Amino acid sequence: MFYQESGQFSTRYRQDGRALRLWQQRAALWALLALAFGLLPFIGNDYWFSAILIPFLVLSLAGLGLNLLTGYAGQLSLGSAAFMAVGAFASYKLQFLLPGLPLLLSFVAGGVVAAAVGVVFGLPSLRIKGFYLLVSTLAAQFFVEWLLTKFAWFSNGNESGVITAPPLLVAGHDFGSPAGRYLLTLSVVLPLFVLAANLVRSSLGRNWMAVRDMDTAAAVIGIPILRTKLLAFAISSFILGVAGSLWAFTYLGTVEPHGFDLSRSFQVLFIIILGGMGSILGNFLGAAFIVLLPIVLSILSGSLLSGVLPAGQLENLQKIIFGVLIILFLIKEPDGLARLWQGWRARARLWPLRF
Amino acid sequence: MSFFMEVLLGGLLAGVMYSLVAIGFVLIYKASGVFNFAQGSMVLFAALTFVSLLERGLPFWLSFVISLLSMLLLALLLERLVLRHLVNRPPITLFMATLGLSYVVEGVAQALWGAQVHGLDLGIEDTPLELGGLMLSRFDLFAAGSAGLLVLLLSLLFNKTRIGLSLRAVADDQLAALAVGIRLQRMWVLVWAVAGLVGLVAGLLWGARLGVQFSLSLIVLKALPVLIIGGFTSIGGAIVGGLIVGASEKLAEVYLGPLLSGGIENWFPYVLALLFLLLRPAGLFGERAIERV
User: Fold this and answer.
1) Which has more pLDDT, B292 or A280?
2) Which domain holds residue B113?
3) In a domain, B38, yes or no
4) Does the keyword Cytoplasm apply (chain A) (predicted)?
């Protein structure tokens, strides 16, 4: 009943090409946007912004980047954090070298540098397939981490490698407060999501999916494999790079290589497994899940098991629950939370009838 | 020159330890097509169980047997609870399931036995041994010896027994193996348990070297380039790959490291593996996949 397609016809090609073809979907989107931009900045408190909303948004963006590469183009990657690190450090370094550079432009530049690095480590994907490709992405992960820690140039001679991010000034306004950082993050993340949502419906997106499903077949029907795969690496790394800049600038407030280690790569991978491979919405769902799970678990164990469980065991318990959830999802719902959402929508369409 | 030889031999012996981890991978990949990222956690689990039992006063052989039984139990549970439900899923799904598995195994191991570092003394003195003018670590030689013995036993198992025949059949063609009456699920349990045994041996050797602690599970990352160079489906490849990685890693650290301000052993094997892959996309001994639509 909530969803009624009846009576909504496309009479123009423009209408036919819309990402959201039902007015209910568009209304829901506008309502969400109004909520995110208009209401949340005023009612949220600092804890919500700094500990939940900002990491949620940035991780969604990182998930999107990996999802384009893994979920849409089918190239498995364990190097997401490396590309995030490249983006963060490139943004920082550019801010430092060109003092007048607008902040948003340095985010974009960070993304571009990350894209270039992504293409370099994506080159082997033309010859290497499947699990063998993990090596290339892991090489990226370890090499970038090593490069950023070992060479002081990247962190401006700072011994610990940890640098404070510059103030968040956009067009003269200071976005340094938690609510401001949230707004800034949101306004960077959303356009990229719109871009990606349209990209996967374009011919490039269709090429990616063809390559994912069977790259030999895709080559036979004339899809340029070289361009398709490298563009997947470039665009994915661009988005990851921007996500990395946001992670360092708006979430952590510091730029450091250790924030981008292998466990971050796994975290991003889990976001897309849990959220849904090959789904745009899934990135939000997966990221929300990843951000909220530890918080919920610690609250639960704090109230239920306080005193019963030694402090060290909580971490182990979290790990076990996490692993079990991953396996459960893969067994029961391989398409992730996004698929659950779709199922719920399909039922809501017919409700209160069953068929 | 003798310094070069010492570095080379030291690297080769260290490489044997990498091979041990890689062999566990190869066994599972061949029999069930699963790229088992949890091999490192299995090494940790086995070693931690062994050490904890030993510290509670059990004799060496009993701890070994109990650890082995726990690995068998792990294999049984795994087949019943995970693998059985993931039949016919794409390999990437299975891989990600083992990622989840590695979290569970690490969590359980540390919840059971605690997270502190355990020392492990296998009773081998790590004194240098002089052989033909070269100084070699006695422990490394012992490790290489036990790895050699293990490989010998495995190859006997694979080539001379009925179980080995079934395992080779499963590795060759799962459907055909099913058709001639081989119980696939039993074979999976078996091969995961054997991988557990290999993991236990690797865990003991690595544990004696580094102490039994969480970082043991990270040797999976060392084994990956070994696998890539050797190919996913060949035990011989895993050994050769281990030797290549071990030797080149040490040589690079000694000769190339100072030029690049050190610490390159983390990524060097990967770059090496990448170079190998560009020449031979399926590893040195891997099966070349025929692609058709």
Assistant:
1) A280
2) 2-214
3) yes
4) no
Q: Whole-model pTM above 0.90?
A: no
Secondary structure class of B289 (helix, strand, coil)? coil
Q: Tell me, what's the ipTM?
A: 0.82
Partners of B128 in the β-ladder: B137
Our CA-based measurement puts residue A172 at a distance from the nearest CA of chain B, in whole angstroms, of 42
Mean pLDDT of chain B: 82
Q: Do B281 and A132 touch (CB under 8 A)?
A: yes
Q: Which has more confidence, B198 or A165?
A: B198
Contact B97 A330 (CB under 8 A): yes
Residues 231-290 (B) with a CB less than 8 A from some CB of A? 232, 260-264, 266-267, 270-271, 273-274, 277-278, 281-283
Which residue of B100, B277, B281 is in closest CB contact with A323?
B100
Q: Is the pLDDT of residue A59 over 90?
A: yes
The Cα B242–Cα A298 span in angstroms is 42
B109 token code pair: 């191991």
CA–CA distances in Å: residue B22 to residues A266, A352, B26, B81, B284: 21, 56, 6, 25, 14
Chain B window 35-54: which residues touch A at a Cβ cutoff of 8 Å?
35
A98 band by pLDDT with thresholds 50, 70 and 90? confident
Domain count, chain B: 1
The total domain count for chain A is: 1
